[in-house]
Write a structure and sequence with these properties.
2 domains; six-stranded parallel beta sheet; Rossmann fold; 17 helices; alpha/beta; three-stranded antiparallel beta sheet; elongated; single chain; 11 strands
Length: 401
């Protein structure tokens, strides 16, 4: 009887080799593993630059590393020695797919590897398109976003705590690998894919009109704090000191917000005084400070629980500001099928997310990350056909660990 493929694991049977560190490529590899691929992360003996990255568990193991390597297999090899490099080349050739951000290494470059496997898929993330180095925070500094992040009165740049370009780049890298696999299935041809991290940031700034606004209108985006550009959105504080983010994107949202706060007549009078049309979202944005002055009184007169109950009955978009520690106790985590309890060796038990895509209504659960070198013997015997004695000899010479 022919087995039915698991729709949640469309990449089952695909092998991928990953040589990486930091965020973008580890995220790409984990995403591909969550889609069913067998992903082997190859690290130098002792670990790459991110193996001990904070935060750490009490025992010194990296919670960060475990979070971005769930579901992978781990091989540790001496990638400075000729024997170690040749061994890793064989793994890449066997899998036919390499995803990496370790650029400039001739021995695992596309030009070298394609001589060993003509249909190779080689996805390489670099810092900048000109070959220069760059990480999320340095790339971000040169794009413009830190200059429009933070309170309106602030003049200093503010970096966002979320490494947005790493995350976006990781998803682009996973998408590139999947499309290259489809192309190879259709044509028998491999692909060389290059994804500069800086280009991901530049494309995003262009696609979201930050660059286009400056080029076409000759204007630069202003710093507006927690307001929402071009719309009405603002943070408010309750009488007991709890902060809320409130957004009114549509006419219905705005009418409900006015009704909730008892300001319908005041807002109409304000519109008449200013000669403004608050049915227009641009006008609501332009006069956001005056509107906020009207709405703030109602929020300041009510407790967080009262505000929560009242907003729940409206169409207004809103959320209460929470810390990470508060969020993990909320039902959005504790009752969300995206999260399942994971027993991560060396770290402990906790709720961990799987792939945030439900297939036929179900989420695939997260699986534990390996420790460095956990799968060296298994991968070398299964992929390359080496015997356990062969692997033992490699370990004795320090070629693998």
């Amino acid at each position: 009887m022919t087995s039915v493929p698991d729709p949640a694991r469309p990449l089952a049977g695909v092998r991928i080799t990953e040589i990486s560190s930091f965020v973008a490529v580890p995220l790409a590899g984990m995403t591909l593993a969550q889609l069913g691929a067998e992903v082997v992360r190859v690290d130098p003996i002792g670990g790459a630059a991110d193996y001990r990255r904070w935060p750490l568990a009490d025992g010194g193991d990296s919670i960060y590393w475990a979070g971005l390597n769930k579901g992978k297999r781990s091989v540790a090899a001496d990638m400075r020695s000729a024997e170690g490099q040749e061994l890793v080349q064989r793994l890449i050739v066997d899998s036919g797919v390499l995803v990496t951000n370790v650029a400039g290494r001739q021995w695992h470059s596309y030009d070298t590897l394609v001589q060993l496997r003509p249909d190779l898929i080689h996805v390489e993330v670099s810092g900048r398109a000109d070959g220069g180095t760059g990480v999320d925070y340095t790339v971000n500094a040169g794009i413009g976003f830190p200059m429009v992040t933070g309170p309106a009165e602030l003049s200093a740049p503010v970096n966002h705590v979320l490494p947005a370009w790493d995350v976006a780049c990781g998803i682009y890298a996973a998408l590139a690998a999947v499309t290259a696999l489809r192309h190879r299935d259709a044509t028998g041809q491999g692909q060389r894919v290059s994804i500069p991290l800086e280009n991901v940031a530049l494309a995003t700034a262009g696609n979201l009109s930050f660059f286009t606004e400056a080029m076409v209108n000759g204007t630069a985006r202003e710093r507006i704090g927690n307001s929402v550009y071009g719309q009405y959105g603002q943070d408010f504080v309750s009488s007991d000191g709890v902060a809320f983010m409130v957004v009114a994107l549509t006419g219905r949202h705005f009418r409900d917000l006015c009704e909730l706060t008892g300001t319908t007549k005041s807002v109409a009078a304000l519109a008449q005084t200013l000669g403004a049309d608050f049915t227009d979202e641009g006008s609501r944005y332009q006069h956001r400070d005056a509107l906020t002055g009207l709405f703030s009184e109602w929020f300041g007169d009510h407790t967080a629980d009262e505000i929560t109950a009242a907003l729940t009955e409206t169409s207004v978009l809103w959320e209460r500001y929470r810390t990470f520690a508060e969020a993990v106790t909320d039902a959005k985590v504790t009752s969300n099928p995206l999260f399942t309890r994971l027993d991560q060796p060396r770290i402990g038990q906790y709720l961990a997310p799987g792939l945030p895509v439900a297939v036929n209504g179900a989420y695939a659960p997260a699986t534990a990350a390996p420790a460095l070198g956990d799968d060296t013997t298994g991968v070398l015997t299964e992929w390359l056909g080496l015997s356990r004695d062969d692997v033992a000899r490699l370990a004795e010479t320090g070629t693998v660990a």
